[in-house]
Amino acid sequence: MSFGGFGAPIAGDEFDVATLSVDAKKRLNALKNLDIEHSKIHRQFLAELAALEKKYHTQYQPLFDKRADIVNGEYEPTEAETKVPETVEDYTELTTEDGQAVQEGPVKGIPDFWLQALLNHTHIGSTITEQDREALKALKDIKVSYLADNPGFSLEFVFGDNDYFTNTTLTKTYYLSEPDATTDDDEYVFDRTEATTINWKEGKDLSVKVEMRKQRHKESNKTRVIKRTVPAETFFNFFKSQSLPNPDDETAEDVDFDELENQLEFDYQIGEEFKDRIVPQALQFFTGEASMDDDEDFDFDDEEGFSGEEDDSEEDDE
């Protein structure tokens, strides 16, 4: 069977470009040059798109700042500011169902705004443990900023006083690599992340848990209790710096690069989700109005999560 006059056999996986005629291969080279030209234009598009995102982010930010003031009770909206257009649902007209309790008494701001918004995100909510909830009650704001010298971005989580760590902000920065101008590659490539080290208060580290087990001495037959520190699942494992090691590095011999690349891709998707949906649509996530269908479009493995550290340590009770 021939196709397009090339005289090359085409039978699914058996097709090999090398079997084409020289004239056909030259034409493929011409097509490759067109692809390279397209990539040059697309790289220009990406650069202008990034600049446009930064430009409009500066216009969004005052709105986000005012939102944070309202949420945290630092600004009380005027009567005029609480009126919504007739075509928009008025939250003050919502009624409770049987058995639902209404919050009574004076309330500062909107309690647990960001905690509830994150819990209402299908995938991120699944990474939040019961202990995480107590720490995330202190989350006051999530801010997005763009990097001046890189097409990446940064997420800043602002916290009030809490029983778990002393940090007032936890930051996760995503660095991207520019497309290679010498090839037809026209997309930004994930490079690495850099995250704040969490200063846990004594006995409050949510990223580890202590397991107790008995150990018997072979000679004396006496037993002792061993404390073993092991990784724990927690939302706060999100704040880890990650990058792909150099494949030529001796320490990378035991690295499963496919698995690590999947983890980094998952991590980057989380960052994009915060930047593109959760921060701008925080109200809709808090109320539950954010579309579940949109969540289903988010490319996650249901079993994926923020993994803990692999290292563990032991200490005895003696």
Automatic annotation (TrEMBL):
Gene Ontology cellular component annotations, sorted alphabetically: nucleus
Domain of life of the native organism: Eukaryota
GO terms classed as biological process: nucleosome assembly
Biased composition (Acidic residues): 291-318
A Pfam family recorded for this sequence: NAP
Chain intervals for the UniProt region annotation (Disordered): 286-318
UniProt similarity note: Belongs to the nucleosome assembly protein (NAP) family.
PANTHER family: TESTIS-SPECIFIC Y-ENCODED PROTEIN
Name this protein carries in UniProt: Nucleosome assembly protein
Organism annotation: Catenaria anguillulae PL171
